[in-house]
Amino acid sequence: MAPKVLVSDKLSETAVQIFRDRGIDVDFMPDLGKDKDKLAEVIGQYDGLAIRSATKVTPTILEKADKLKVIGRAGIGTDNIDKEAASKKGVIVMNTPFGNMITTAEHAIAMMFAVARQIPEASTSTHAGKWEKSKFMGIELTNKTLGVIGAGNIGGIVCERALGLKMKVVAYDPYLGEEKAAKMGVEKVELDELLARADFITLHVPLTDQTRNILSRENLAKTKKGVRIVNCARGGLVDEEALAEALQSGHVAGAAFDVFSEEPAKENALFNLPNVVCTPHLGAATTEAQENVALQVAEQISNYLLTGAVENALNMPSVTAEEAKVMGPWIKLAGHLGSFIGQMTDEPIKAINILYDGVAAEMNLAALNCSVVAGIMKKFNPEVNMVSAPVVAKERGIQISTTNQDKSGAFEGYIKVTVVTEKRERSIGGTVFSDGKPRFIQIKGINIDAEVGAHMLYTTNEDVPGIIGALGQTMGEHGVNIANFTLGRAAAGGEAIALLYVDEPVPAEARAKLAETGLFTQIKPLQFDVA
User: pTM for the whole thing?
Assistant: First the structure.
């Protein structure tokens, strides 16, 4: 059955056609996002939801979204989506950070020109029939120092454009390396140095606990007298009240804002101040950008629903289409390892330690981690998936750690998962064979070679004669067909294990019969999702 997607905001017909062309059933209802009650009524039918800013995805909506797997936002901001509730529900939240990069960067440059030459005020004056040429004395951008806070995708384009204008560019970005800065042609500095040197400051960072009020009253006081400040990123990055005071005192010569701490901005401390340029969040408002993000979100949602590729996700590690092809069997293996150890563990888990060896260590470990944790957490919540599993683990106070190592054995790569509880540690290792099938290769330090089946039986015992006979005879008596039978032992006469891959679940009567023999210390039925 084809996946079904709802488009509840205005997307271009070309974007909607992408869903249809890829075999996805799509309902285009561009005004539905404004009717939260109707949206809640119908959302349970859909696997995917494509939106812009009008649709508000609240916990109430998500509670009704029983089939929903992915929400795609055509644009960068996802303030209209409750991401915590989506994560708990196991729904991936994607945005489209690249479709409007150039548009937003160009708007920042345009705002910088506008505030440097007082263009809006001069235009208003001229329209009024005045000719106040001497009143609107501006400054050049050439040879001025631009301080860029956040030199990522959009900030990087602003740097490039500013260098083309013959400006000197200094950048503050904790994630910007010296080598990358040199390649960009900018000087990497700390925030205090940027504040002291910049003639213009432009912000290009998301709003987080670390960046909120990054231009605080204290930091504004550190800026160079006569600085001009541009914010086309997010409201809340600048203390607007403090900036208004700095503008009125003359310490700050001008400001250009496209975003505000409260939007829609009906009132603001910056309104009606001289040499303050304000626009109503137009950073991404070009025909090209709106089309680009619409096409991008359609492609991303389609790719996920059809291939499992995760692009630009905010609550799950991204996995490209190319990675999905290679990593698919390894993601399944990681889930099986987690599922095995989760089904075997009855007491509260304190920690999960994951070892990646060889080729596995070179993959997208964040995605593999999510699969392992999801497999484990299904024991406690069958509805958990790769999105919600880390949230569930965090709520339970489980510590998760990973270790990478070069190829260390007979296999090109493998994954080993160890769970720590108050009483014990339990571990299992696995690999992917050349046929693409996951295999269990080690349990409790005992080497085995077991294919993963939908129904399995795990037993432990002392290494004594009669084990194979007891298992085979008991399964036969209860009509259970054995597809594969794997044995392993630590040493002759020591601890031994058996793993049976059977065609149907082993009934309780059969397990009771095995227990009556007195040969087994543990008898555990297991189930795996091998679809």
Answer: 0.66
